[in-house]
Amino acid sequence: xxxxxxxxxxxxxxxxxxxxxxxxxxxxxxxxxxxxxxxxxxxxxxxxxxxxxxxxxxxxxxxxxxxxxxxxxxxxxxxxxxxxxxxxxxxxxxxxxxxxxxxxxxxxxxxxxxxxxxxxxxxxxxxxxxxxxxxxxxxxxxxxxxxxxxxxxxxxxxxxxxxxxxxxxxxxxxxxxxxxxxxxxxxxxxxxxxxxxxxxxxxxxxxxxxxxxxxxxxxxxxxxxxxxxxxxxxxxxxxxxxxxxxxxxxxxxxxxxxxxxxxxxxxxxxxxxx
Length: 274
Prior knowledge:
Blueprint: E1 12-22, E2 31-33, E3 36-46, E4 51-59, H1 64-68, E5 78-80, H2 88-96, E6 100-104, E7 111-116, E8 125-133, H3 136-141, E9 146-152, E10 159-164, H4 171-180, H5 182-194, H6 205-229, H7 235-244, H8 252-257, H9 263-273
Parallel strand pairs: 1-5, 5-6
Antiparallel strand pairs: 1-3, 2-3, 3-4, 6-10, 7-8, 8-9, 9-10
């Protein structure tokens, strides 16, 4: 698989969850509210090849961080998460395991600046501090020093405050890591649009789970074909090409390369259809 586009060698993951809305009358086993059913797809996306390395499916009531705590990321990994995974005790556990995280700091978090570092303001950076939590419960759950980075997006003008336990990477790299978290959102969008997991053939729990897991298997097969073929075709182009040639007996790599079909092969296909 191709690597991520950052210079560091650490494995990079983005962790997020996406809900799939269902009709309560057809899917009563996934009841979320009085008039709504929902299941939730949790994904830990490996930026090396954009592969969904960690996947689980729960009902809509399960919190994102509840699943996040169960994932055993490799030591030295960097995990990008949003504020939905805010858990100070978990931050401490990740640090003890040698796993780095990049997230956004809640605005109401009580902290104390231990050390300040200079920043390159021409790159949008506004601050780079080593901090400690001063809240009674927060300090008990996370008694370690962390790094707080301020960044203003030059395009939108919006200001972000990032929190991380990585003190080696440049402050701008930390901001770029969080921005790369958007890739997992694009994954959810792609699989919902192309793998048809918003409309289900069956209504039982087993039918829904089976359809989603088949979609994941197909995604991995498409990614494998893309990496093996070493072609510049997108996964969507490969998918469309396969859909149009489902009943054609052809060499797969020749099909992906766009090689013309020989007359002999054409006659064989015609005989097979007869």
